[in-house]
Amino acid sequence: MILPTDVARGVAEGRVTHVFRRWKQARVRAGSTVVTAAGVVEITGVAQVETITDDDARGAGASDADAVRTAFRGTDEDPVFRIDLRFVGADPRDALSATLDPSEVDTITAKLDRLDRAGSHGAWTRTTLEAVVAHPGLRAADLAALLGRDRDPFKLDVRKLKNLGLTHSLEVGYRISPRGAAYLAATDRRR
Q: What's the mean pLDDT in 62-68?
């Protein structure tokens, strides 16, 4: 489940305690976590609901129940689920992305090599990191187009780099993290 940035920030600030989704069946379960732009959010409950009150809507960060219903995807026949949320803490990738211990270079290189081998479009990790350095804040669709890639698979690949602490997501686009910059510098010296 993806939480929009404003909703994720609302959860972190305690203003948003739940969200509503219209799905054929529940796609999340209580106890799981979601990494969001504001940090880690835990799903504390999932229940199918028949009605949404204006008070329920305000707890979801919306102005009223009609605003919630207007935002739904899916068909009117699909059930509505209330997903209760709790802020857990900062995104652990933020701390990871802050520094690079020189002893980690070989481990990261091995992980990037595996990602390159597993990709359906050849080696992509270094090219993508260098593109992020050259074009910070460029929309994902535009950055993907520069690399001859489709947007959605490209975004999934950049998320893999973020999971290694090498990039940061911005409101629009990406930037290299301090760890990513240090990794590129360390591996450039080896070339």
A: 96
Domain with CATH 2.30.130.30 in the chain: 5-90
Nearest to 140 by CA among 113, 169, 167, 176: 169
Is residue 49 a contact partner of residue 22, using CB atoms and an 8 Å limit?
Answer: no
Question: What gap in Å lies between CA 69 and CA 51, rounded to an integer?
Answer: 10
User: Pick from 160, 31, 139, 162: which is nearest to 86 by CA?
Assistant: 31
Task: Please classify residue 24 by burial: count the beta carbons closer than 10 Å to its beta carbon, then call 0-12 exposed, 13-18 middle and 19+ buried.
Answer: exposed
CB atoms within 10 A of CB 27: 11
Look up the CATH architecture of domain 94-190.
Orthogonal Bundle (1.10)
| Residue 170 DSSP one-character state | -
Compute the average pLDDT of residues 61-68: 96
Average pLDDT over residues 104-118: 95
